[in-house]
């Protein structure tokens, strides 16, 4: 079994997927045979993940195992390279159960060897859009874009669907321009039939679990009122699993007198690291739930581990909460309650629910911890020893206070207090014993009269201990509700691993724009509204959510498209001299800040005899489908009102084109060019930093994907620095974190490293469309 598990993970299956596969005997046998045959054909046991994925898909769908060898060979020899081709292959074999297979007929039926070029896709989409142009202009973005996709796919059967979709999006945007407010108005929905009462009762907490990002309710809509089926304040006892004691109703009555029935939540981060994208969901959920229901939310620092806490983390956490648009009702600290927590610990001992233990730290690790020989020591003895712990009469690790309870995961008698001779950033040397999370968390919730203790799914195993401790001390007990964590692919967010990335020089610091910490996303230029919108689109789900960065980037584009003024920048400049303009010619060109809505303002840029364009916007040799500048093809200059034509190409001693001499004429009199390109004149020199994914694989922490560890998976092209890019003068007064769309290039944000002498821009995201074809 272990050998088969290893065989399955060797082709790229995660360990969990491999284990699930092993439970299916028929699938396991077929997949094992396919892998063995693949090894034989390849002459090696190394099967890359692309082939492995197709082998798994084939094994799970192939009905006639007599065809297994034939199909495996075609996959391994890379004749079948996509799910589309595999589906065609399976259909072909299904239609010929007895016939000997003709390789040539198979190849033809499955598109073997067919290569679809970008130009073919562009032409096919252009033809489809031309066919529906009248209706598109009438209905705009309400038009069924799936129809365009379907017709383009019919014309190019073996084309990559994603590439077709990108081309459709780009050409539609070129035809219609960005979405207007009218386009964004929702169509009135037909009234839905009333949902049966039993169906409502059976619904999960999830309101919007579909991460495909269809039509999404706003976060406030998802969190308001009855949407989550949470208990009402004071009705904690109606929640499944809530422990009711003889004093529960009296405690709830007192709680309601204090809160007035108001919802109270808290966001309780540990101040030992920087917040990341997963915390954004927690912030939105905790603060958002309170806001949506006219409640309050505390920012409470869980500062019970003085060894790892630093002031910079306290400051950064509060900054990020406020950056996302939330204001805490109050900023509190677990350390505010150190004396009260200590007094409660003494009470817990007196009640017979806690004891001082001398087992060593290493003995307490894991789940098969031997029972403590001190579990039944007399209460008075534990009281004396706990006081001695407080007075510093024991060495670190020599004694702990443990609670007499068994957690849901089977862990017995969790530690409530441990000794640490480390000064605390707020209380100094006043304490040398510090409470643990398991002890502190629920008690601070109770002290602050929290109504809904919202936490991620991994804390579900601690729910019973949460209730037990409040009830053991006869205190008001809040209700713990769990939700799924938000994870992103192509990144790591653990503090330990980010520190490793910083220490090894892979990234500069916690705010390196390639990371997904909130400070890094702010530095890269992600607007807080986009992050909040992303959290709303992911939805409030019980199940853990893993999404890809491009879904977050789509939210960023939506916000920046409406908020980032346009400018022109040239990353790889090519000098262009317009010979039919005078040497001293200069005029001001007015360029709209938002071309789709010119009422939002404009800026002027100089236009002179010498301009600079992108090197990629000129080709010496004409190629099919290329629409920009060539010796035989003129091009328009955006906003300038001119069309330029090449007269002379100037090269250096190595044959590289270094300058073009052109002539210009008014775009009103010239034949309409196939494209308009951006340009700059009398520009500012700036530095531009282009970012890509930091890791090569989706799950850099997964040993089945990256056997050598996440540090071996760094993308060598994750950062490209262009030190002498050119940008128009409209950005010269920009402030740190100001955002722009550099036309046809992408969205950019001004980096804090900028100086008065040199601006530095971070690329936030690329444009959705292909910048080479506008």
TrEMBL record:
Keywords: Acetylation, Aminoacyl-tRNA synthetase, ATP-binding, Cytoplasm, Ligase, Nucleotide-binding, Phosphoprotein, Protein biosynthesis. It catalyses: tRNA(Gln) + L-glutamine + ATP = L-glutaminyl-tRNA(Gln) + AMP + diphosphate. This is Glutamine--tRNA ligase. It is an enzyme of class 6 (ligase). Residues 3-161, 164-253 form the Glutaminyl-tRNA synthetase class Ib non-specific RNA-binding domain. Residues 676-751 form the tRNA synthetases class I (E and Q) anti-codon binding domain. It comes from the Eukaryota. PROSITE patterns: AA_TRNA_LIGASE_I. One of its GO terms (biological process) is glutaminyl-tRNA aminoacylation.
């Amino acid at each position: 079994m272990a050998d088969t598990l290893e065989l399955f993970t060797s082709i790229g299956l995660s360990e969990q997927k491999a284990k699930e596969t092993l439970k299916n005997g028929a699938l396991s046998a077929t997949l094992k045979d396919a892998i063995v045959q693949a090894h034989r054909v390849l002459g090696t046991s190394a099967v890359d993940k692309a082939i492995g994925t197709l082998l798994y898909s084939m094994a799970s769908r192939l009905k006639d195992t007599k065809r297994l060898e034939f199909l495996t060979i075609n996959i391994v020899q890379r004749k079948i390279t996509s799910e589309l081709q595999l589906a065609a292959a399976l259909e072909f074999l299904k239609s010929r159960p007895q016939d000997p297979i003709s390789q040539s007929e198979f190849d033809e039926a499955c598109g073997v060897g067919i290569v679809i070029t970008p130009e073919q896709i562009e032409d096919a989409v252009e033809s489809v859009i031309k066919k529906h142009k009248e209706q598109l202009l009438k209905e705009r973005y309400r038009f069924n874009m799936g129809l365009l996709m379907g017709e383009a796919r019919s014309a190019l059967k073996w084309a990559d669907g994603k590439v077709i979709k990108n081309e459709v999006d780009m050409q539609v945007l070129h035809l219609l321009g960005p979405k207007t407010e009218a386009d964004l108005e929702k169509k009135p929905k037909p009234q839905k039939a009333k949902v049966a009462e039993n169906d409502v009762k059976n619904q999960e907490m999830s309101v919007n679990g579909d991460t495909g990002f269809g039509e999404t309710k706003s976060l406030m809509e998802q969190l308001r009122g009855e949407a989550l089926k949470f208990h009402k304040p004071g009705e904690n006892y109606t929640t499944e699993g809530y422990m009711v004691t003889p004093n529960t109703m009296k405690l709830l009555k007192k709680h309601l007198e204090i809160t007035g029935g108001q919802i109270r939540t808290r966001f309780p981060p540990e101040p030992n690291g920087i917040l990341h994208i997963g915390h954004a969901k927690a912030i939105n959920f905790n603060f958002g739930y309170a806001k949506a229901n006219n409640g309050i939310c505390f920012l409470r620092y869980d500062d019970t581990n003085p060894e790892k806490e630093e002031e910079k983390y306290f400051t950064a956490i509060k900054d990020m909460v406020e950056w996302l648009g939330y204001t805490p009702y109050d900023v509190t600290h677990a350390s505010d309650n150190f004396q009260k927590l200590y007094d409660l610990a003494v009470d817990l001992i007196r009640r017979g629910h806690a004891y001082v233990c001398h087992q060593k730290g290493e003995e307490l690790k894991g789940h098969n911890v031997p029972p403590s020989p001190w579990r039944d020591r007399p209460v008075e003895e534990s009281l004396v020893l706990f006081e001695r712990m407080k007075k510093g009469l024991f060495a670190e690790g020599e004694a702990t206070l443990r609670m007499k309870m068994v957690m849901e995961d089977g862990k017995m008698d969790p530690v409530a207090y441990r000794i640490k001779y480390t000064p605390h950033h707020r209380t100094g040397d006043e304490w040398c014993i510090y409470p643990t999370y398991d002890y502190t968390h629920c008690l601070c919730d109770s002290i602050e009269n929290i109504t809904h203790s919202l936490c991620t799914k991994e804390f579900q195993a601690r729910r019973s201990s949460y209730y037990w401790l409040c009830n053991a001390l006869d205190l008001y007990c809040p209700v713990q509700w769990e939700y799924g964590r938000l994870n992103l692919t192509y990144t790591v967010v653990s503090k330990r691993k980010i520190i490793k990335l910083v220490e090894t020089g892979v990234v500069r610091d916690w705010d390196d724009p390639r990371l997904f910490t909130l400070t890094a996303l702010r530095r890269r230029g992600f607007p807080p509204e986009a992050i909040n919108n992303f959290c709303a689109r992911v939805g409030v789900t019980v199940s853990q959510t893993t999404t890809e960065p491009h879904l977050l980037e789509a939210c960023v584009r939506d916000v920046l498209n409406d908020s980032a003024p346009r400018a022109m920048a040239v990353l790889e400049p090519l000098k262009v001299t317009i010979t039919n303009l005078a040497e001293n010619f200069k005029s001001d060109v007015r360029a709209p800040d938002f071309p789709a809505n010119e009422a939002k303002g404009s800026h002027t840029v100089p236009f002179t005899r010498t301009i600079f364009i992108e090197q990629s916007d000129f080709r010496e040799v004409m190629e099919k489908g290329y629409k920009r500048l060539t010796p035989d093809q003129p091009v328009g200059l955006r906003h300038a009102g001119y069309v330029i034509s090449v007269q002379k190409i100037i090269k250096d001693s190595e044959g590289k084109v270094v300058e073009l001499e052109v002539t210009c004429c008014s775009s009103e009199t010239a034949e309409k060019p196939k494209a308009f390109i951006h340009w700059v004149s009398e520009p500012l020199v700036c530095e531009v930093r282009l970012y890509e994914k930091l890791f090569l694989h989706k799950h850099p922490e997964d040993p089945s994907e990256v056997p050598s560890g996440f540090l071996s998976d760094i993308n060598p092209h994750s950062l490209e620095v262009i030190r002498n890019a050119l940008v128009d003068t409209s950005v010269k007064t920009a402030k740190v974190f100001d955002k722009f769309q550099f036309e046809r290039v992408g969205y950019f944000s001004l980096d804090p490293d900028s100086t008065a002498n040199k601006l530095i821009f971070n690329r936030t995201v690329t444009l959705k469309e292909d910048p080479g074809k506008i």
